# Entry
Amino acid sequence: MNSIHYSTDVQVLEARYALRLVGHLNAQVESLPPDVSERLRFAREQALSRARETRAAAGAVPAGISPAGTVVLASFVPWLQRAASVLPLLLLLAGLMMIQQWQTREQVLATAEIDTQLLADALPPAAYSDPGFAEFLRAPAQP
Amino acid sequence: MATDKELSDFLKSVEKRAFKRTVYAVRHDDAALDIVQDAMIKLAEKYADRPAAELPLIFQRILSNATMDWFRREKVRNAVMSSLSAFDATEPDGDFDLLEMLQGAEGSAGGESASDAVSRTQILRAIDAEVAGLPTRQREAFLLRYWEEFDVAETAAVMGCSEGSVKTHCSRAVHALAKSLRAKGITP
# Structure
């Protein structure tokens, strides 16, 4: 029993003495040279900027459950940024598809126009497959 | 998750002690500043998403590992230099032996001129020298336990040893400091 008390007392005395020494160490640390303090400040700022970069790269909005019970998306902002970067590509594809449709429609209309003119002409379409009529068309017009 | 302000406040609160603790270990201001900067950046890059309450323990662990890495690099560099050199190195092999040698040199250099009339600055310097002169493990345990205000379990976690070892190291450190300071006539 006495030995327990003794060891506790020794520990208390040790701790008290150590804290007195630490007080002196604290006083000394507060008077570090300015260049050391400045370099520590620079190191701290570097570390903070790295932390910001890391958070930004990882989609820093934390995932979790809000107090209201709804799930908070971890990467909401980066998702929007990714969608925004894909948007020009989607617009380009839509434009190309519209151009192709317009060209197809133009071809159909041109073919329909030719068919209409052929059918509306006094000359029957079968005449164009007649060799004699073809020869007539190639021959120079008689004055 | 620690916010920028929490991280900044934490680093600001710990940076000077971290520097001083590293200077005690490596005995070189520039090297200590590099080590502290590396530790800060590593903490910020890899552990900034951890709660602010966990940062002190993680940071001290990173700092201890960074210091050990520095010693390993120095050891390799010294080995290369000594093998290139024609001179036989008089330095011992282990990190701790090297520190012990430095400790002995510092202790003998600062062992004079102590009396009740010394100025406060001189007292601070004497205490600083005595703390720097402690064996590495004792000094680490002492500083983590009393300066960083870690409990025994946290100190043991940072140092990678048992809680009993921490208590022993701390006790021996305090007794050694008390004895050497008393011999110089200094009562803190």
Observations:
- The beta strands of chain A are 64-65, 71-72.
- The longest helix of chain A spans residues 76-120.
- The interface with chain B takes residues 10-11, 14-15, 17-30, 32, 36-37, 39-40, 43-44, 46-48, 50-52, 54-55, 58, 62 of chain A (CB under 8 Å).
- Residues 15 and 21 of chain A are 10 Å apart (CA to CA).
